[in-house]
Design goal:
This protein has 8 helices and 16 strands. The protein is of the alpha/beta class. It folds into 2 domains: 158 residues, 3-Layer(aba) Sandwich (Rossmann fold), CATH 3.40.50.1000; 111 residues, Hypothetical Protein, Haloacid Dehalogenase-like Hydrolase, Chain: A, domain 2, CATH 3.30.1240. Strands 5-4-3-2-1-14-15-16 form an 8-stranded mixed beta sheet, with helices on both faces.
Length: 280
């Protein structure tokens, strides 16, 4: 294993990826980390299929945490460190609960084909759900009742922002699973409630990488902009949030809402890392 002295983790949508592109400043800064002995990690809610649509194969990352931590992969070799799944009885229980609440939801196939999904419309139209469905129409299939699936990568319900309290309700009902709230990257308002197997999160994915490299004592920096980044930021020694993001916690260091936000966070982090090395 290559010796590393630190870890830098970046969320993708709304953080490193803005309006469908990564700025030259952020790309250059991310690329320099490897030469400084810093492990480079992307942590995203996207599936591998979706991440590959916006990141070139030679993107300067060492690892990618996919689907909010459901998979962890070495970026260059595509070696999979983690892949978690829901089992048939869990899928049935989740679908029954979501149908009972009249929600619109999708059940995503198991990895690596988790861009595919079965879907069910709820009792009232949800514009963001229809938008996501149209965007991924080639991979979706409508289901009647609960799907006959032995395994699934996740279940995703889409609700209006006014119904955000449903996240807490489902998190309590499925306390043995991982129930994560995210803000829709499509309209920036709707709530995505993602249900995974137990123990899935971005933070858990980063810990898998830390354990693989024996970096428990390394200084970790992370940057994000949404609720599903919070556990990752809370585990970091140097946590950054994007200004005017969905994260209102003042304990995080604020990075400007600009195209060089990640580059500025990297500069701040590397200064702290250097100062720490000089004190040692």
């Amino acid at each position: 294993m290559t010796p590393y002295r630190g870890i830098f983790v970046s969320d993708l949508d709304g953080t490193l990826l803005r309006d469908g592109r990564i700025s030259p400043e952020d790309l250059e800064a991310f690329g320099t980390l490897g030469g400084r002995g810093i492990l480079r990690v992307i942590a995203t809610g996207r599936s591998l299929h979706s991440a590959e649509a916006c990141l070139p194969h030679d993107f300067p990352a060492d690892y990618i945490v996919l689907s909010t931590g459901n998979q962890v992969m070495h970026w260059e070799t595509r070696e999979v460190l983690r892949s978690s799944r829901l089992l048939a009885d869990e899928i049935q229980a989740i679908c029954s609960a979501l149908r009972g609440l009249g929600l619109s939801f999708m059940v995503h196939d198991d990895f690596p084909g988790n861009q595919g999904f079965a879907f069910s419309r709820g009792q009232k139209p949800v514009e963001d759900f229809e938008c996501r469905l149209a965007l991924h129409a080639a991979h979706g299939r409508e289901m009647d009742g609960c799907p006959d699936m032995d395994t699934a990568s996740q279940v995703l319900a889409v609700v209006d922002a006014a119904d955000e309290g449903l996240h807490a309700r489902l998190a309590k009902e499925f306390a043995g699973l991982s129930v994560i709230r995210a803000t829709s990257p499509l309209d920036g308002r709707s709530v995505w409630i993602e249900i995974f197997a137990a123990g899935v999160s971005k933070a858990a994915g980063v810990r898998d990488i830390i354990d693989r490299h024996g970096l428990q004592d390394a200084m970790i920096a992370a940057i994000g902009n949404d609720h599903n980044d919070r556990d990752m930021l809370d585990m970091a020694h140097v946590p950054f949030k994007i200004e005017n993001s969905f994260l209102g916690d003042d304990t995080y260091i604020t990075a400007p809402n600009t195209g060089d936000a990640v580059a500025r966070a990297i500069a701040h982090y590397t200064e702290l890392l250097q100062a720490d090395a000089e004190r040692s």
